[in-house]
Amino acid sequence: MKFASSYEPQNFETDIYAAWEATGKFLPVIPDSEYALEGAEAKRKRFSIVMPPPNANGNLHIGHGLTVALEDSLTRYYRLRGEKAWYIPGADHAGFETWVVYERNLEKDGHTRFEFSRDELYARVWNFVQQQRGNMELQLRALGASCAWQDLTFTLDENVVRRVYATFEKMWRDGMVYRGEKLVNFCTKHQTAFADIEVEHEDEDGYLWDIAYPLVDDSAEIKEIIVSTTRPETLFGDTAVAVNPTDERYKAVAGKMVKLPLSKREIPIIFDEHADPSYGTGAVKITPAHDPDDFEVGNRHDLPRVTVIGFDGKMLATAGAEYEGLTTAECRKKVLKELKEAGFLRGEKKIRHAVSHCYKCGTVIEPLLKEQWFIDTEKLAKVAISHLENNEIKFHPENKQKVLTNYLKELKDWNISRQIPWGIAIPMFKKVDSNADGDEWVFDTRVNLMEIEIGGVKYRRDEDTFDTWFSSSHWPIVCTNWEENKPSDFYPLNVMETGADILFAWVARMIMMGLYVTNEVPFKEVYLHGLVLDANGKKMSKSKGNVINPMDLVSKYGSDAFRLGILRGRSAGMNQAFSENSVVSGQKLCNKLWNISRFIQGVIEEETEKRGFSYANIDVVLENEQVGLTDRGGSAIHESESDKINPEQYQYTTNNMGEDWICRELNRCRAQVEQCMAEYRFAEAIEVLYATIWDKYADWFVESQKIYKNTSLLKATLETILTMLHPFAPFVTEAIWQNLSWTSGMIIDAKWPSKLGYDEISAENFERLKMVVTEIRATNTSLSNVAKGKKFGVLFGEDILVDDNTLLVKFLARVPFVMPTNGAPRGLHLALANHELYLDVPEAVVADYRTELEERILAIGRELDGLNARMMNPAYVERAPAALVKETRDAISEKEGLIKRLKNQIEAI
């Protein structure tokens, strides 16, 4: 088969993926003999990982691209290692996110959600999502995700809903679910509540106002208390003023009453440690219905809750008739004006403080009292903490285990109610007639009905849906088809890979739910990736215009280039910059590998034709290639006594030191990649492969094979490289595999490389020879200016290594000749390689070269003086940006090192 002259990804990727999928390459094939196994033995040689489900309605973003690159690399690696690898894809109904998109579309069409019933809205959104869903799946295929598509799990699938309901019912029976009125984070635009971890907190400029609350008792020593607040519009909901019990200023007024400004109500002064003596005046207004901290204070002191802001974000009648219907901003303006006129406003100062916002629309979140369903998380958290502290789950990065444990120790009860139609309906029904017999609330899965009747008592369905994170907390359970009476051999997962930003929102909840439902941790390890930032290290956002679309890069450079680019340099848990340049680097590696393979295929065809053998008779070819090893000072280690060498995987012989050396280097590469993958150090694995393929295989071994043409070893080493790179660059490695004349099947079915046999002494000799060639190349390059591009030949003295390899040195060093000095050395002495070597350079050229080096030292010295003078200036060091100062220091170090190297060259001359 003839190789195309260049690798064009668009000509291969779609067809290759279709071939993989059509032939069932992504399925975890399990031999019939293993189905009878039980317990730990049944789980042996299994690798399972689930995809964090992308929004079924949306396009993939750069974070999804990173996710697929990480997870698919792991899956393909363990598949090559002989594991039954199951990569389970998913799609998320993404309750609130999808609802926001759909509601926006409704508005564009001139409609609102209030024109439809909740059931009608659910049906409409379902159809909307199904129309969009295929796009996401196509993009996952384009990224090379080798997932089992027939096992794709949608978060609204029947089995998911069934499992969620079973868990909720169990929690209801166990007394872990309760209905309660609490303060919730409420978005007045989208009309739904959020959990604390879903709220975004942004630092904003604001004001702190001081307001006087007069004491009712005029005879008191203190006539008024000044409170500080950022929300004067909520004062109508105040039910107390709190001071710290240690604050001596207010000891005399404890238990007394104050008049609520602009109101006829009187409220008590209470002692509570919530009041900070060092903040403002040390006295704070307590508004239990509109502040989370005040809510807790109110519970401690049994204070009434007065709600003055409605779910529409407007003031209620309880604030006073003249304020009813005003927005909070309008009310604040009016209240401040009236406080000032009445003499209650005593101060105003600018501050910087955190303000809570809806993470989708940016609306300021209102803490509002609302009845919701809550999960009592105390028992769940304690069990999870116990397993975490027993190190039953390994985290990457390691410190996240402690971070998660600390979070769980402070975990509050979980609000699982959401006021949107799109999602899994909460299967709870409330008694219509409160005077009728029976429980107030009953569990029932007939959520398709608005009303049900049990024992003659009517119940109406709660219209809320579950928080998406509640259903998603079951993800490892539902994806692996775990059931009480039929546990899955693939549960727990080998690893859960996801973003570090949802450690609390998702990973914590999966651990708690997995332990509660299955009594096992849901996964053995957790790998957390950080955010992908733009090239300047800034978070990507549409408003900034710095969003990178992964599919644009895939279309431009190919899937493999994108995967290599986004994995390169990435560390667990770190938010790191990403630029198109890294993808270009990946593309170059793919092209390099293609050209190497094309060359090797050409050599194979040429040598086969010369010898008159066909590759159908490969054993004859190999038999004829078994030649001696007299020029290497050793013998090849191809014996089967090493259980790490598999002589059946590769049949070859090594005929010279360069061939032994590449076998050793490929063994080292394989071992390093294995260690990196075991420790989830993807970037390091890729760097090892880059260096091996480019700097060792291409630059040294393949170059030397232009002389030796060892076809059996060329095949063995290329197969080794292709297989090791396949997890990270699946398309180009498969395309090459299909173009090679001697390979069969598909590389996705290949075995991970076994150890290659080689002679250590011979390999080490080639390492020494490399140093010789490197110095010859470098010196000729340095001389190119004064020698006007001429390359000088090499003379050697008593040197067996060079003498035995003159042809190889001449070819690799690209010099006109390599010959002995015959006792009369001349030219430029090459000292660094520690061999008796000379470049045959005329004395006049040497003199010119010395002069050039001296002039370069002077020029660099002048630059160095300027940099040092800059660093001696205190104003520069203190006021210049830190990055610029560091850049200057680095430049000084670089130039000092360069001067030292140039002086060493002069000494060598």
Name a few traits of the molecule:
Isoleucyl-tRNA Synthetase, Domain 1; four-stranded antiparallel beta sheet; alpha/beta; 909 residues; four-stranded mixed beta sheet; Isoleucyl-tRNA Synthetase, domain 2
Structure description:
- The chain is of the alpha/beta class and 909 residues long.
- Among the domains are: 200-357, Isoleucyl-tRNA Synthetase, domain 2, CATH 3.90.740.10; 580-758, Isoleucyl-tRNA Synthetase, Domain 1; 784-908, no CATH class.
- It has 27 helices and 30 strands.
- The strands form 10 sheets. The protein has a 4-stranded antiparallel β-sheet with strand order 6-5-14-16. A 4-stranded mixed β-sheet has the order 10-11-9-12, covered by helices on one side. A 4-stranded antiparallel β-sheet has the order 19-18-21-20, with no helix packed on it.
- Helix 19 (682-708) runs antiparallel to helix 20 (711-725).
- The two termini are 53 Å apart.
- The relative contact order is 0.09.
- Residues 613-644 have low confidence and may be disordered.
